[in-house]
Amino acid sequence: MDFDFAILLVGLVAFTGVFFLLDILVFKPKRSEGELAPQWLEFPASFFPVLLIVLALRSFLVEPFKIPTGSMIPTLLVGDYILVNKFAYGLRLPILGTEIIPIGEPKTGDIMVFKYPEQPSINYIKRVVGLPGDEIRYENKVIYLNGEPVQQVLEAQLPPAQPQIKIYNETLGGVEHDIMITLERPSEPSMTWTVPEGHYFMLGDNRDNSRDSRYWGFVPDKYVVGKAFAIWMSMPGWVPSFERNRFVD
Fold it and tell me: Which top-level group of life is the source organism from (predicted)?
């Protein structure tokens, strides 16, 4: 999604805030004398408190997102609506992403929403694999974190008779989650990265169908949006479903 709703929301708060202040400073004293404020002022001024509350909630507490692609299958499916904790990684200024109150930091294994480094108007969601200073190697579809292979346990082969997909349970930073491997996709050459200070290395759970840090590099801290923690609705088609509602790891 190229459209940045945060910029629009901040603009609307600023726009309506001007009318709200004008009403308070200029026309409120006149109301005590029985003079009414003009309609062109009352209408935008009345929206300011609501928009300000929405901006505060969305910027500092919880923000909803919709999953548009299959890069996080099997953890998150296309059409899942998720909730993102905006204060898990510290309170940040809207649009700028500058941390103003440190609360926590991303951890290995977290599902994180962030601004796509090559086009910051777009939000991406992937799993945190590497923290600053970590060495990441991806070889034969296995993650090596600081020289140690990340544990993978085979859970399923689909379809069982002639498997095309394998589902593994992976333990990353103490977080257990499922990943998907597509057998027809050949293993890429072994690659190694060292995560620079103030950056993170991200991978999708759908390992053979995800454009992530393997292709476009690291995520700077200023592009961190928040930590995904729950699915609250799914809409793969036109009808909403609540069967997948759950907390996610």
Answer: Bacteria
